[in-house]
Amino acid sequence: MSELRDRLTAAARAASAKAYAPYSHFHVGAALAFDDGSVVSAANVENASYGLSLCAETVAVASAMAQGRRGGLVAVAVAGGPPAENGEARPAKAPVTPCGRCRQVLNELAGMGGTDPLVWCIGADEVLEIRLSELLPHAFGPDNVLG
Ligand code: THU
Fold this sequence. Notes:
By secondary structure, this protein is of the alpha+beta class. Helices cover 33% and strands 22% of the residues. It has a 5-stranded mixed β-sheet with strand order 2-1-3-4-5. Strand 1 (27-34) and strand 2 form a beta hairpin. Helix 2 runs parallel beside helix 3. The chain is globular and about 50 Å long. The termini are far apart. The structure holds tetrahydrodeoxyuridine (THU). Tetrahydrodeoxyuridine is lined by residues 21, 24, 26, 28, 44, 46, 53, 55-57, 78, 80, 96, 98-99, 102.
């Protein structure tokens, strides 16, 4: 499992170099691991209308779903911070945890495959390892709508 953590962390950090974050200057990369061994990663994409900005996790989920993925999500890594020379986030001191909206977006993809992914939130001094269900207890999901 620590091998997967290291691989996903590296993918998240590499993705953070692609962040479009001219407003916050906070580069974030998210990497999603699937049960077939594949990894989908993405960075945050901001907008001049600030509230329309998209977090790295949301872009990664949209990218995976646009590739046709439905479920199979086993783990997630998120790394963020101000960019280094090469654009990669220098991990912020505190672990970067997915925002509330991203927790909900991740839950939709995870729920399709009935998994409860491990989420690694990378910080400079600490990596928080936590299940999505702990980040988003009592989640609102498809069952609430579709019965
Ligand atoms: N951000 C993410 O991409 N993921 C997170 O988990 C936290 C916040 C982005 C949103 C915005 O572009 C920037 O970080 C600063 O909030």
